Fold:
Amino acid sequence: MISTFSPLPNPNNEFITAGGFEGYHCGGMLSWRKSGDTGGYSSRIAYSALKGRAAIAVDTCGGCGSQGTAGSGAQRAALILADGPPSETAVETQQTGMGDSVTIVFTGDALSHNFPSVAQLSIEVYPAGDGETATVALSSSDGAGATTNMAENLGNGKWVISEPIYMGTGWGAARDPFNKLNIQRSLIISADGKTAVYQDMGSDTALELISEEDPMDSSTEAPSDVSSDNTPLSIGFVSTLFFMSSLILI
Structure:
């Protein structure tokens, strides 16, 4: 279970309900998941009413495909499927409040896919003069990271990133087939520019702006949820569906 290594609530604004469902964010949108593990199987249900997507994944190989703190292959697949593929809809490019040539650096803690621990991320953003594209460089304490100039400004602080810069890069990337998937990656910066979230592999990592008063090892908090604060409806129905599906599979 991910919560073994990352007690909830945590710096990425994840939390757990009385019914055992874990709340998390992906692309700045509230989502829900519930996971299970035994010696013989691993499972997860993940869904987001705001995205209109849900996924149930179960394996019978006792949690095969696990990566660091990210869970089994089935559990990771559920997050990616619930997030959905990259959008093919073109969005009109807009200027944000970042400035045309100002370099911005964010830092935060992520659940490592290489080790059973937390990894510290540093993300540098170098916007182009036209404000439409940017070079984004990511480095991490777990040996992953890359630089790309394939970041597109969709407005409202969102930069869509078209190639891997964290998961799927650096040490250990070749051993995980999920790194070859075409998934959603983005950097979403808050209106005040002080916080951001990095979307990768179906979930968000919370970041904060570095300043002279804020060292890189400081704690992080997620920006305000852009979705509603309503608790999930029909959790009982979803739980029943999940367990009925598990029984059928067994």
Q: What stands out?
A: The first strand starts at residue 15 and ends at 16. The mean pLDDT is 79.
